[in-house]
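May I ask you to review the protein record following this short note?
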Amino acid sequence: MLKTPISFPVLNLPVHLLEDYTTWLKERMTQNLGTHVVTLNAEMAMLAEQDLSVAQIIRSAELVIPDGAGVILYLKLRGQQQSRCPGIELAESLLTELGQEGERYPIVFFGGQPGVTEQAALTWRARIPQISILSNHGYLNETELEQWRQTLIEKQPKLILVGLGVPRQEFWIASYRYLCPNAVWIGVGGSFDIWSGSKTRAPRWLRDNNLEWLYRLYQEPWRWKRMLVLPQFFWRSLLLS
């Protein structure tokens, strides 16, 4: 059985340290080992301090990756030279590899606004014609949701990307991963918006300088209250080092 990677605590939450998360996850898939992947950033870490149910989900996940620049800073201040792994890039890496396998590795996109998620799936089908993607938006009524759950049971996809925002997507995965116990489940936030073209990702120079959060604030100014936790996390990182 594939070994669990070494973890390092970030505000009492585990972050798993690997050079290649994609390869590790693909090996989990070949062994039919179900996996919940949490993409941890500073905002989620601070939320987990306030909401113990969020903290429990993160601690229960088989893989927690360092998604945010703040998490990388926290690790570096403690001698851990780990590279940042944005969730969208991990998902893209898996889609690129699994998509070549077609029906052997069925994939699910779930979440996002009506129309957006299907457009994201169309984008990937244009890139990789043989890719097998089943998609649905995140605004289903109870009858539609029950039908969707039955579809997941029937199809048993290998990779399920859930874009419902934090922490709703984490709760959804924790509640429903039993439907596809051998799948890799990843909360991908607004990735469907990016892939559909309805939003754009920060330019590379901002990403390389750990300023992607600033571009997101420019695109979504309503997030400013949520981002007040970033300086709090920064000071916690310094004071606890």
